[in-house]
Amino acid sequence: MIGKLNHVAIVVPDLAAATAKYRDTLGAEVSEPVDLPEHGVTTVFVMLPNTKIELLHPLGENSPIAKFLDKNTDGGIHHLCYEVEDILAARDKLVAEGVRILGDGEPKIGAHGKPVLFLHPKDFFGTLIEIEEC
User: Fold this and answer.
1) What is the pLDDT of residues 49-59, one digit of tens each?
2) Under 8 Å CB-to-CB from 120, ≥6 apart: which residues?
């Protein structure tokens, strides 16, 4: 069921500074910032040969990652995203195995324009997991 690692998401307190660090210091190719109001974040993707890094910054007062930054003022790793071929089949199998899906259990469109779901971190050893249909 699980496919390749799509990205590692890092919450950053200053999106412009983080983008510049990856672009100018590490020489990485980075995307333009994209606001995702439905998810309460602004994202920038750092392109790597084998995966991506997603830089996340809160968008709006109700951003779910604002609390993360309150607790981790320097930022930090937020989640891992794995690809799945069929998100609904993956969801149903995971639920049957006792995994908790965050939110209402229905996929939302993520930063890549594809359906995504988040899995409860307590079901994966303290790690928030995102699955994305490929």
Assistant:
1) 999 999 999 99
2) 99, 100, 101, 102
Instruction: Provide the token pair at 120.
Output: 């409860």
Does the predicted TM-score (pTM) go above 0.90?
yes
> Catalytic residue among 83, 130, 132, 133, which?
130
| 41 pLDDT more than 90 | yes
Would you call 130 a catalytic residue per the annotation? yes
In order of start, what are the domains of the chain with their CATH numbers?
5-133 (3.10.180.10)
116 three-state secondary structure = strand
Half-sphere exposure of 94 (CA within 13 A, CB side): 23
